Each structure stands twice: as C-alpha cells, then as structure tokens.
Amino acid sequence: MASPARSAPAARQRSQARAEGGGGRLGAALERPLWRALLGYRILTAGYAWVVFGLNYGAYEAQGRPGAGLGYLSLLSLWTLATLDRVSSARRCTAPFLVADMTLAIGGILFSRVADPAQEIGPTLPSIWTAGAVLAVAVRAGWRWSGVAAVLVGLAGIVEYGGPGRSTLHNAALVCVASIAIGYVVEVARASERALAEALRIEAATRERERLARDIHDGVLQVLALVQRRGSALGGEDAELGRLAGEQERALRSLITGAAGPAVPGPRTAPDAPDTPDTPDAPDAPDAAAVRPAEPAEPAELDLRALLAARAGERVIFSGPAGPLPLPAAAARELDAAVGAALDNVRTHTRNAAGVPARAWILLEDEPEAVLITVRDDGPGIAAGRLAAAEAEGRMGVSLSIRGRLRDLGGTADWISLPGQGTEVELSVPRAALRAAAGPAAPTDREGRTS
User: Fold this and answer.
1) Which of 86, 105, 106 lies closest to 97 in space, CA to CA?
2) What are phi and psi of 86, to 5 degrees?
3) What pairs with residue 428 in β-bridges?
4) Are β-strands 370-377 and 423-430 bridged in parallel, bridged antiparallel, or unpaired?
C-alpha cells in the first residue's frame, strides 16, 4: 500500500490548507474595504469640520468663543491622525480605543455649547465626524453595540440642543439606522465566513478519508479477498483462515463506507501457536528507527509512460508516446494507481466468451490540453446499474480508487460499456490541473505542458 505522505494529491493538500488557514484570510478580505472606507470617512469629515468652523468663524467671534472651537478641532485632528492605524483592522480597533473615540465625539457635541453659548451659529463642532465613531463600533462589534453608541450620540445631541428638536431627532435616527444596518451586514459576513471555513475543513477531512479508503482498498481489502479465496479452495484449517479474512474484509468495507454494522471478532491465534515468554535477561533489541535505512528523496517528477508500461504483461498491452511523459510525482502515482484499479477490476470481475480473464489495453495520449488514459477490455461489458450497486455494497474500486483519484487531481473518469463489446474507462486530467499540482515554479514547454 502506498505511503500516505507520498500518495496524498495536491488537491487534498490545498483543501486542507484552505480549511486550516483560510478563515483569517477570508475575514481580512471581507472587512478590509470597510476599514478603508471608514479611514477615509474619518479624515474627510475631520477636514469638513474645519471647513464648517471656518465659514462660521465670524459668527463665533461676534457671539461665541472661537478659541474653544479652535482648541477642540485641533485635538480632534491630532486624534484622527494619530489613530489611523487603529481603524485598519478589527484586531487593532480595540475596546479602549472605541471608548476613547466615542468619548471624544460625545464630548465634542456637548462642548459645542461652550464655543457657541447662544446656540445660533450652526452644527456642533465635530459635525458629522461623530458618525465615524459610531460606524467604527458597528464594524468592530456588530449592530447591537453600534445601536447603543448611536443612542448615546443622539442623547448628547438632544442635551446640546436643549431639547428634542426636529433636526436633532432626524440626525440621531439617520446615524442609528446606518450604524445598525452596517453592523448587521458585518455580522452576516462574518457568520458566512465561519460557515465557509467549516465547509472547507469538512471537505479536507472528507478527502483525507477517501484517500485512506483508497489505500485500504488497493492494499488490505484485496489481500484479504485473496486470502479468503485461497483458503476456501485449500479447505481444512486454511478454510477457517479464509473465513476470518472474509469477515475482516466485510468489516473494513463497512467502515470505509460509513455503514454501521455488528462488531466482527478479530482473528484468533492458532491453538498450536506457542506463547512468547518474557525474557528480561535478553539483550535489548536495536532501535528500529536507528537501523532503518533512510528513504531516498522524493523526486519532483515521474515518467507516467514508464509507470504504465510496467503494467504491461501477457494479457495487458500498453501503447503510448515514443518519449517520456514527466508529470508531478503525486499526480503520476495517482494516475498509475487509478489504472491499476481498473486493471484489477478486469482481472477479478471480467471473463471473455472463452471463460478466461479478459485482455486489456492501456492507451496513453499526451495532448496539449490534457493527459488522456484509456483502459479497454474485451469482456462482456458492465450491466446497467452494476456500478451503483457495487458502490452500495461497499466495493470502492470505481467510486474511490478510480473516480475519487481523478476528482482530487481535477480530472474526470468515464465508463463506456456495451453488452458483448467490453468496457472502456477514459481518464482525463487537464494540463491546468497538473500545473497547479506542480506548483507555480514548474517549468512549461511552448505548448503549456508541464516539463
């Protein structure tokens, strides 16, 4: 059975990476435009407050205190410039900053009575800058806290005006509705982001389970099925071993298909098997990890033509390009394993008219847009509905070992079968998917094929 570390396809690795780290990146992408808009709003409205104050400066000199207004607007401008980085992300926009920001906004509304005691000049000193403070609460904390902040700003305006005037109530309602709407949209976006991250995590886990199921099918299940057949044929004690192998095969099929079934007893030790006594005085065995030779480095590419040509034999004929067909190592192994699963199906389940295992042909085509592999046999063909029935029975040769591998590589697997004319399996993987599996640094030839 192939090593899981080596047989894991690039698509599964990308899905797992998205599931593990995609949530934060997705969140930043969703919220970044809001923070940029809020930053621009604060700078523009700080300048607007200066423009309004300048236009009414003569009135402040005649019946107000222009010095108080100049002092507050200077403080407002310094605060706006000094806190530019605070409104760049949710992580930097902390609760203490929001409290200080709201304090400056509400304080500016109330301080307007000091600069304009007669309440006849115009808008408050911070003017519409106060809405930016409420919007910061909406983006950072959601619609509930933004509603509270909008109510506080509205109450401050009523106190500054001396009562619930028409313009005061209108401005308070406008800020309240806008902040609650934006806060609600932000919360919905964050909930969607979490749901997407969870879906990506489930997808990665499902693909990993399917990969393990393929490895089990290609190795353990086939060996157990072979032991069962050989044991039944030999009879005697070997028949009991074959029966146990058959039980374990059915249990594994039930496990990898997710079907619940009764517990199956494990294989029993043969009666004449001697117990291994404890030997404390014996010298310690050498550490397996210390004596195990180091595995050779994993090649970046493998020749798919060579892998498939090695499967040719007495009843399997291979035909392919004259030269090598290098592909990313993981993709080449997965395609070779899918072809091996198709050939196993031919050897195990297909007999021709003479009652002997059918012959099979492998055709490898190196096209500019895709790599195509065709596995054809001269058997009786597949009855309608047989593939779906085999999958329901827990036989994963088609659904996982072939179709699942091609899906993870970004390709497709199709079956063409006519009664009495054999079966043809067409495997296709686009070049674009192979380039993605190879990574951005993989060189390509003039036709765009991975080299």
Assistant:
1) 86
2) -70, -25
3) 372, 412
4) antiparallel
Looking at residue 149, its pLDDT comes to 92
Give CA–CA dist 130/80, Å, rounded.
12
Return d(Cα 347, Cα 345) in angstroms, integer: 6
Q: What is the Cα 190 distance to its own chain's centre?
A: 16
Helix 10-55 vs helix 66-82: angle between axes, to the nearest 10 degrees? 170
Torsion sign (Cα): 398, 399, 401, 402: positive
| CA separation for the pair 396, 225 (Å, rounded) | 14
The stretch 301-318 carries a mean pLDDT of: 90
- Taking Cα atoms as reference points, which of 252, 145, 201 lies closest to residue 22? 201
Does the pLDDT value for residue 426 go beyond 70?
yes
The string of DSSP letters for 145-195 reads HHHHHHHHHHHHHHHHHTS--HHHHHHHHHHHHHHHHHHHHHHHHHHHHHH
Q: Which residue matches tokens 């590589």?
A: 409
List 328's β-bridge partners, or say none. 301
Report the relative pairing of strands 316-319 and 360-366 from DSSP bridges: parallel
Domains annotated for the chain, with CATH where assigned, are 4-197 (no CATH), 301-438 (3.30.565.10)
Residues 361-390 as b/e (b if ≥16 CB within 10 A, e otherwise) read: bbbbebeeebbebbbbbbbbbbeeeebeeb
- Spell out the residues 6+ positions from residue 59 whose beta carbon is closer than 8 angstroms to its own: 120, 121, 122
Q: Both ends of the chain: CA-CA distance in Å? A: 28
Amino acid of residue 417 = S
pLDDT of residue 81: 95
Task: List the strands of the sheet with 423-430, edge to edge.
Answer: 316-319, 360-366, 370-377, 423-430, 412-417
pTM over 0.70: no
Whether residue 175 has pLDDT greater than 80: yes
75 has a pLDDT exceeding 90? yes
Contacts of 242 (CB under 8 A, 6+ apart): 227, 228, 229, 230, 231, 232, 234
Provide the β-strand partners of residue 423. Answer: 417
Residue 226's contacts (CB-CB under 8 Å, 6 or more residues apart) are none
pLDDT at 95: 93
Q: Quick check: 46 pLDDT over 90?
A: yes
Closest CA to 36 of 158, 139, 177: 139
Distances (CA, A) of 259 to 23, 209, 224, 245, 421: 32, 14, 19, 19, 35
